[in-house]
């Protein structure tokens, strides 16, 4: 048999087309439906970027107003979702909590949908489901954090846009415009990134004609891993372990000697730096100034400069977003659920694209197990 060339982890393998986003490591750029993500982060509310990813064009003022009206209808925690979250132990990981909540939303919404033959739904149904999930996730993430802190649920406010309302439900106070802007930028930067592991997982599930909720639940499972979305939580664990800039060199000596992966650094596609980092770093800088935390900036810069100098591996988006979310006041365990709230827009855009392509994803494998053999007396 000819030597089969295995592409471990599908590294470098182009498996399909997508029109949702373009990641270009050569030019270190990322386009959402043709727009540079830096321009979107600097000029758009997250609602407009969600609309762009789903529909392919930025919304008109009328279309944005309609999306905002529809989003507000689905912000509040439903009784089924709240009951499901309340059944979980307080120690449950927030990623498991959000995964469970999405499952409940799907089970309720798909309840009357009959056989699996109807699971995949129409493009109109899936767009509506995408908007409803996008609208519902902030309350799920905010309630989970407040519940773990022993605090009461805070109901959404219709007078606040997506990011301001998310922060209101999480902290019970109107956030400063500087904080809202930094948070809004992070949501846009986290929204979409072509065929990353969680998005590809969602596409595989969609390719069997399964439903959008099942695909999002699968994507959440993939995002949880520290090699992927879980890295933003892991960045804070590392920063807390190091403590201050003075400890970085000794800490890195030990970590690298132990061959540890330094979370928040490296990327399968970007090898000369993640295109999103400068924009998220600028947002972090505004938060460092707003909260007067130069110590955070010192530790961030020292660890980055030391690790890049030693390994030539650059930060990815999770490196600046971790400390940014920490400064805003989110619990470390809430960081990756924030990633879900943003990436659900990219996931659902890809789910709708995959559903339209109608092509089952089923790669081959090269067998390297024991040769054929037979049970004694088992052969006729
Ligand atoms: C995200 O795909 C996406 O687009 C994902 C994402 C998105 O928006 O969806 O961008 C979000 O997931 C960003 C990545 C977050 N993950 C982390 O920060 C975890 C730490 N990073 C590494 O685990 C690693 O960099 C990966 C998994 C991200 C990428 O790994 P690759 O491309 O498979 O590269 P590799 O693991 O083969 O590394 C090549 C070498 C190895 O050394 P050798 O074994 O060859 O000696 O570089 C080393 C690795 O050990 N290396 C690291 C490292 N990253 C790579 N060593 C220490 N720390 C690191 N962070």
TrEMBL record:
What does the record give as its pathway?
A: Carbohydrate metabolism; tricarboxylic acid cycle
Query: Can you quote a single GO CC term?
Result: cytosol
Q: Which GO terms describe its molecular function?
A: citrate synthase activity
Keyword Acyltransferase included in the entry's annotation? yes
GO BP term (any one):
carbohydrate metabolic process
Domain of life where this protein originates:
Bacteria
Cite the entry's keywords alphabetically: Acyltransferase, Transferase, Tricarboxylic acid cycle
Enumerate the Pfam families for this protein: Citrate_synt
Catalysed conversion reaction: oxaloacetate + acetyl-CoA + H2O = citrate + CoA + H(+)
Location of the active site = 267, 318
Which family is it part of? Belongs to the citrate synthase family.
Q: What is this protein called?
A: Citrate synthase
């Amino acid at each position: 048999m000819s030597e089969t060339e295995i592409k471990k982890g599908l590294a470098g393998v182009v498996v399909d087309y997508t029109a949702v986003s373009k990641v270009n490591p050569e030019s270190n750029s990322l386009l959402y439906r043709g727009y540079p993500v830096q321009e979107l982060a600097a000029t758009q509310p997250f609602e407009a970027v969600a609309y762009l990813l789903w529909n392919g064009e930025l919304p008109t003022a009328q279309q944005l107003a309609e999306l905002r009206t529809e989003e507000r209808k689905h912000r509040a925690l439903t009784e089924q979702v709240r009951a499901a979250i309340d059944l979980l132990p307080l120690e449950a990981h927030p990623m498991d909590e959000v995964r469970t909540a999405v499952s409940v939303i799907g089970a309720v919404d798909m309840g009357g949908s009959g056989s699996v033959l109807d699971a995949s739904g129409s493009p109109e149904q899936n767009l509506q489901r995408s908007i409803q999930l996008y609208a519902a996730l902030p309350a799920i993430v905010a309630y989970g954090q407040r519940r773990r802190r022993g605090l009461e649920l805070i109901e959404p406010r219709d007078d606040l846009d997506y990011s301001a309302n998310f922060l209101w439900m999480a902290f019970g106070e109107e956030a400063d415009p500087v904080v809202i802007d930094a948070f809004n930028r992070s949501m846009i930067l986290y929204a979409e990134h072509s065929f990353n592991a969680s998005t590809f997982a969602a596409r595989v599930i969609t390719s069997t004609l399964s439903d959008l909720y099942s695909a999002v639940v699968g994507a959440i499972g993939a995002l949880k891993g520290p090699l992927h979305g879980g890295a933003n939580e892991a960045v804070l664990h590392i920063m807390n372990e190091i403590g201050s800039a003075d400890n970085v060199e000794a800490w890195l000596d030990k970590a690298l000697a132990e061959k540890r992966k330094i979370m928040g650094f490296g990327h399968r596609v970007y090898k000369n730096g993640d295109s999103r980092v400068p924009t998220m770093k600028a947002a972090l800088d505004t938060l460092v100034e707003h909260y007067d935390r130069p110590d955070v900036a010192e530790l961030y810069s020292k660890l980055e400069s030391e690790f890049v100098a030693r390994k030539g591996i650059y930060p990815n988006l999770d490196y600046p977003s971790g400390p940014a979310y920490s400064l805003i006041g989110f619990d470390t365990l809430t960081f990756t659920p924030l990633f879900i709230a943003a990436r659900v827009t990219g996931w659902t855009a890809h789910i709708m694209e995959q559903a339209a392509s109608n092509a089952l994803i089923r790669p081959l494998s090269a067998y390297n197990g024991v040769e054929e053999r037979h049970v004694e007396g088992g052969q006729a």
